[in-house]
Design brief:
4-stranded antiparallel beta sheet; about 325 residues; about 30% helix; about 25% strand; alpha+beta; disordered N terminus; 8 helices
Length: about 325
């Protein structure tokens, strides 16, 4: 049984108010929550840990905003079905907006896919096929295509097959700890990405990682929804577990939140160019969980790399 990726295009700040923030001064963990998509919140919806009803308008909002900012092209009309359903999917054409709303019944996700984006994007290395709807910077919905969804789209659109093109402008990565893949638009590393849960094994690994966060950092993470969000951040390279806390990193800076003592917290600010240098450094160097949480360690690394940064707060200032 195939399972498509879980993404609803919500900012990661959605439902993250329950994550306890103890960082003094400017906390870049909060910036991360505001700038990436909360795959974890969607995973929580699927698993019944969040009772907020799924609203079609939430999923369509990004599409409407982006499409209103550019000239509306003439789009085809699909009037054969008001709603088309299969075992796993429901597709609702909206000719006025020029998009399909695709519901994945299994994950509970909703995606708004413009008619012009109904094409197969195929990754040459893995053969994985994607449906990608692009709403603008850092905002895109992604589904991993399976035969059931392709068949549904053929029926709704009255075509033998959606057109196929090579996957360009996106990079497919694999998280080394869980094996879960994630997709990032080129040039937006450190800003977000989409976690792709493609099998029951992926769901189980995601669940296990969330449980790790919940159990290891009980003073920082108080509920399962927050744990899912942190698991999604780690998979996309935006968080790392330390011995006693969590390191958050994105294109604007990094911060450390300690589970036991807020006085050990620190935050630093840097440019996106510096983020790229750090990202490359982390790909080629291992830092143990005890060292990775220390401000002095990162200060030394940044100085050696010749990178510019600004210290926002650290315990040395007390």
């Amino acid at each position: 049984m195939s399972i498509s990726g879980i993404t609803a295009g919500r900012p990661a700040g959605y439902e993250t108010g329950k994550i306890k923030s103890t960082v003094r001064g400017q906390d870049f963990t909060e910036r991360i929550k505001r700038t990436v998509n909360s795959d974890g919140a969607d995973f929580a919806l699927r698993n019944g840990t969040n009772t907020k009803p799924i609203d079609k308008n939430d999923a369509l909002q990004a599409y409407f905003v982006s499409s209103a900012q550019k000239p509306r092209a003439v789009t085809p009309a699909y009037g054969r079905y008001e709603t088309y359903e299969t075992k796993q999917y429901k597709i609702v054409p909206d000719n006025e907006a020029g998009c399909f709303t695709i519901y994945d019944k299994q994950s509970g996700r909703i995606g708004a896919f413009s008619y012009s984006d109904i094409k197969i994007r195929k990754d040459g290395e893995t053969g994985t096929e994607f449906l990608i709807s692009e709403h603008g910077t850092m905002c895109y919905d992604v589904l991993v295509l399976d035969e059931e969804l392709k068949g549904a789209l053929r029926d709704v659109m009255g075509k033998e097959e959606p057109e196929t093109e090579e996957l360009r402008g996106y990079t497919l990565h694999r998280h080394p700890g869980t094996g879960i893949r994630y997709l990032v638009r080129a040039g937006e590393e450190g800003r977000g990405g989409k976690v792709l849960l493609q099998s029951e094994e992926d769901f189980a690994e995601y669940e296990k990682l969330a449980e790790t966060y919940l159990n290891k950092y009980p003073d920082l993470i108080r509920d399962k929804t927050a744990a899912y969000i942190w698991a999604g951040l780690e998979i996309r390279g935006l968080a790392q577990r330390a011995e006693h806390g969590i390191l958050s990193i994105n294109f604007q800076g990094m911060s450390y939140s300690d589970n036991n003592n807020y006085k050990n917290n620190w935050s630093i600010s840097f440019s996106e160019d510096t983020y790229k240098v750090i990202y490359e450094y982390l790909q080629n160097n291992r830092i143990n969980t005890e060292e990775i949480q220390k401000f002095s360690v990162w200060q030394d690394i940044l100085d050696r790399l010749g990178s510019h940064y600004e210290r926002i707060w650290s315990k040395e200032e007390e």
